[in-house]
Amino acid sequence: MALQPLSIVILLAYGALITLISLTPCWYVMVTHIEKQANLSSENIVTQLQSEIKYSAELLHPMKSSSTNLARLLSSRLDSTNISFSDIETKVAPLLFEAFETIPHLTQISYIGMEGLFFSYCSDHDQALAIYSNSSSNKILYYVHPVNNETGKVFGEAIISNSSISTSWIKKAANISNEFASLGTRWTNGHDLLFLNSARVNKIGVISLGFSAKAITDSVTRVNRLGTGTYLATKDGQILVEGIQHIRLVISNDSVSFQSVNANGDVIKNYEGTVTCKDEANASSLNIQNTQYLIRCSPIDILGIESVNVLAVPRNGFDVSYKKMGLALLNVMLVMILVAVLGFLFIDGRAIRREMHLCASLIKQKEATHQAERKNMNKSLAVASASHDVRTSLAGITALIKISSKLVPPGSELASNLIQMEDCTQDLLGLLNSILDTSKIEVGKMELVEEEFDLSHFLEEVVDIYHLVAMEKGVDLVLDPCNGSVIKYSRVKGDRGRLKQVLCNLLNNAVKFTNEGHITVRVWARKQTLSSSIIKTNQNSFMKQLSWLFSKKKNEADEDIEKTMNSIQQDPPRSMDFTFEVDDTGKGIPKENYKSVFENYVQVKETNPVQEGTGLGLGIVQSLVRLMHGDIEIVDKNIGEKGTCFRFNVLLGLCEGETVTDFSTKEGLEYGTSNGTQARGRTTHATSSSSNICSMSPMYHMCNSSPRLEPSRVVLFIGNVERRRTCKRFMKSLGIKVKVVKCQKDLFDTLEEIKQKGRRSNGPSSPESSSNLSSSHNSFSRAKGVPLSFMDGTEYMSPVFKKTNFGTVACFVLIVIDANAGSSFSELFGIVSKFKKGLSNSCNVVWLDNPHMHRIDSRIIDQNDIVISKPFHGSRLFQVIMLLPEYDNGSVWQSIKKPHTRNSPVHQGEIQECEDSSCYKPLHCKKFLVVEDTKILRVIATNILGSLGATVEQCENGKEAVMLVVEGLKRDDPNPPYDYILMDCQMPVMDGFEATRRIREMEKPFGVRIPIIALSADIDRSTTVTGMDFYIEKPLRKEHLLEAIRILNS
To answer: Which residues share a beta bridge with 1030?
Structure first.
């Protein structure tokens, strides 16, 4: 049975050869028959073409008698033998013009008197001309006059013509009683050939009609088929029409021959053979330019001029040489068939022997493969079953490290070792989790744990986790709301932990391999059809491989599925297909590695050879996505675009009841990692808050309940191109008028333009409206006149995006400005302040601040301005939109937050009234510079200071710190650039002692002294000698920092 496939192939080859051998004689007979039919067809074509050309020439015969008829008519009018030029003008000229206008192809008509009088009409392009001579003297002058094309009357001035008229043919015409035909040229142009038909008029003159030779020959030889070459010539050898290019026709004694000429007309070659020009002559076959032509020559009469017509029709390659070539090919084919038969016999024998050997090897290989699979399965089962014990041991090690950390002096070498041990333990735990996940997937023990969660909150939480890490590298991480479908279907059921693991892995890779540009996370939902759901459910099924054995049952099953789909088509969806995209502008992945990157233990070294890892991440991601009834792929980018775009989809169930996101929850801060999948070190987790959004599919529903004067305007000045594009597109999808500003100069021009339009359209503003808005804006103001509020998506906003009757405020202006997009904050603030002065419309300003730089000076901004210190997307974008009067009905402007008590936690990002008696932010409005070379310690210090209300900037060594201080001192600002500096003592490039010494030197010309607090585990009195004001032992703690500041202030 093993030999059956090869034997079938050989038998089929033999059958094909036998069939080919039997069909070869038939092919030869058929070719011979086709040759005869082609020759007969060529002769028929020649005969038919000549008949058509003769018929066309016969149609011109009535034009020959035109000159005779016109001569008779003139003879009846001119009865005198002595006529004057006035008789010609009155009697001859009108008749000539009438014939000139009515006879086809007539381009010249003339009357020539025997005494020398002459009058003629001819056409020059589209203008008719009259040529005449009114003197019978020896020296005859010819005049040219333009003629009216409708009346035949001359106009304008006459011009003396230099052309002379040949009278030789005129004498011949006068001596013939009937018409006389000849070839001539036009009076005004000696190059245009004419067919001349002349007749005598009472022995006093001659009437001549000139027909355009080109028009006549075109009408005769208008038929051209199958590449036929048509020649037309007079019997005296003048060629009228040339057929084949660079082939000249030679006429001699009623026969024609052919010559090959070059572009200059020089003869290159004379072709052998002649063709007889008689009606009864048969067609001849000549070889011209390596092409066999069937040529026939026949006489033809054209307007009384005896001519010959030569037709050359190609014979399409059926000649003797081709027939010989066909026989040679036939012999070659027979030889090849014989060689093929012998070759098949030889190959057949070798194949049988090789196949027997391969069958024996295959049996051995299958046994070895089954044994290896059993060993691998046993190993995976052992690793999976030991997961509990390994995790327990790691948890014990981690607990012992934390206990030991409390027993050693902070900042000591042993404490540092314990911290490093804890980091290594976390790395080991993350690696173990990857290996255990792989083992569970291989043995089929990975199960999904379904829970209800808010997908909109979940996305913002994950994106905010990695936003801080991305900003450390100068990369912006953007959450794109797309069409808003995720907000409508935000309450879902699924495995939140596994979905977070997938997203965190992709975001971690994107941040790791992206050094500039941006990273965009896009999510949208679409309805899941029953058929595609079943296909995805069975995507990894083994039965799919055997489906071709059960095609009949499969068709029946498809019919049942179709019936079920039709029966539930009108039911509301119970699940949605959510598509996720993580698009970065990093180095990208070569296209040839698109599939291999999803294999376990595979890394793309071309992308970044210095990055380490196990290569398990994307393999686990693909397995988890398929476990959630989806798939993952790498999307091709457009030409010129950098980076990689991962796209995956998962099937999530919808919760019953309300499916719209609730954006009214509060936001807090916490520290830690997420199942070992997020970036290393301390990362700020921001549980996003959002707002309820109603009926958005795919855009938000906006209900207009009352007329309004003019829609609000939003001005966006955001530095990052991707974030700017995302915000603009989303706002425009809501029907908001958005103006995008790309540079600081355009901001000034745009605001001035809006201000001028507001003045023209609105006039003076209403005092009541302005006072109401001013009082409502105070809900965002801080106590004691401190003009700063924070908005990070945690305030109580209007629950839905819908237009209300609050739209009666005329042209409300909302300005969103990225403080890091301009050259300096003071210049941006000056532009906004100038815009607000004398503004007739209501206006609100939202400042976007970078938590790592904090360029906003809280002491100068307006008390109604809002500051967002977290990424401007998600709930924070939605709440800024709800600041517009159309979407809130005034609730945003009039709601006043309840003050927090001492026992309530302070959430960064809330819009609240911060009073000294109720706010746990003792360092609010204080600006710190953290100088620390260790990233983890730098992040911890930033989070501690941020929780105390301070604004923080960071740098990695003393040299960068000196540069930041110098730049701040050079600014036109009476206040110091920083209120405090936390300085690490031991750093690369420049340590803290040298940095402090240089800062003190730079401060002297400006008359300021910035307090510098040392951070180190090994402190001595040298800190005060170098100019440091205080010191704190590592690690940084809140109580130690507050105590140091209290001592410095006292």
So the answer is: 1013
The per-residue pLDDT for 892 is 41
From 442, 457, 490, give the residue that closes a domain.
Answer: 442
Structural contact between residues 155 and 146, judged by C-beta atoms closer than 8 angstroms: yes
Phi, psi of 322 (to 5 degrees): -65, -35
864 and 780 part of one domain: yes
- pLDDT for 668 equals 33
Contacts of 240 (CB under 8 A, 6+ apart): 193, 213, 217, 232, 233, 234, 307
Q: Which residue has the higher pLDDT, 115 or 508?
A: 508
Q: Do both 1016 and 1037 map to the same domain?
A: yes
The verdict on residue 861 lying in a domain is yes
The structure tokens listed for 920 are 């746990």
- What is the distance between the alpha carbons of residues 254 and 234, in angstroms, rounded to a whole number? 11
Assigned token pair, 998 = 């240089």
Task: For residue 572, count other CB atoms closer than 10 A to its CB.
Answer: 8
The encoded tokens of residue 848 equal 């976007």
**Distance (Å, rounded) from C-alpha 1014 to C-alpha 932?**
10
The domain boundary residue, chosen from 397, 425, 442: 442
Q: Are 678 and 465 in contact (CB under 8 A)?
A: yes
The answer on 883 and 754 residing in a single domain is yes
The whole-number pLDDT of residue 990 equals 92
Domain of residue 248 covers 217-319
14 neighbors 291 (Cβ within 8 angstroms): no
In a domain, 335, yes or no: no
Is residue 12 included in any domain, yes or no? no
Instruction: State the total domains in the chain.
Output: 6
pLDDT in tens, 130-150: 888 877 666 678 888 898 888
Q: Of the candidates 542, 458, 567, 301, which has an alpha carbon nearest to the alpha carbon of residue 874?
A: 458
Q: Both 742 and 797 in a single domain?
A: yes
Q: What pLDDT, in 10s, does the model give residues 63-118?
A: 878 888 888 888 887 776 777 888 888 888 888 888 888 888 888 888 888 777 88
CATH number for the domain including 843?
Answer: 3.40.50.2300
Helices 320-385 and 413-443 pack at an angle, to 10 degrees, of: 120
* Among 47-61, 654-668, 765-779, the least confident range: 765-779
The mean pLDDT value for 822-827 works out to 80
State the pTM of this model. Answer: 0.44
In 3-state terms, the chain is what percent helix, strand and coil (to 5)?
45, 20, 35
For the chain, the average pLDDT equals: 74
- 228 and 117 assigned to the same domain: no
Q: pLDDT tens digits, residue range 984-1015?
A: 888 889 989 999 999 999 999 998 999 999 98
In the DSSP assignment, the letter for residue 345 is H
- Paired residues of 122 in beta bridges: 108, 129
Minimal CA–CA distance to 919: which of 933, 902, 943, 897? 902
Q: How many CB atoms lie within 10 A of CB 1?
A: 4
Query: Of 784, 846, 802, which is closest to residue 700 (Cα–Cα)?
Result: 802
